[in-house]
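Give me the fold.
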Amino acid sequence: MMYKPKLEKDIRCPLEYGLGIFGGKWKSRIICVLAAAGTLRYGELRKEMTNITDAVLAATLKELISDEIILRKSYDEIPPHVEYSLTEKGASIVPILQSICKWSGAYHKDDKDNVLTQCQRCDHK
C-alpha cells in the first residue's frame, strides 16, 4: 500500500474555500434572506427559514459570523435582543448566488415535485 500525504489546508482550491464559506443548503439561504431583509432578529430570521432546527440555525450563524459574512449586534436593553445583518464581505457573495440562481433556472428541468422557489430571495433585484 502506497503512502499518500494529505493535502495541506492552505493549498486547497480557491473554489473549495468559497463553497466552504457560503455553500450548502443553509448558508446560502441565510445570506439570501438577509440580503432581501437587511437586518433581522433571530426570531424573524427563524421564521424566514423553513425546515431548520434551532441547533442547526445557531451553529450555521456562528460559522457565518466567524467567517465575517454576518454581523451579530447585541443590544443591552430590556428585554435584550440581537440583530443579524450581512457584512460587506457577506453582501459581496449575493451576486455570486444570483448567478447560480440564474444558471439553475436556465438548466433545471421541469419537475412538478421540486419547483425552484428558494431563488426568488436572491433574484429580487
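The chain has seven helices and three strands.
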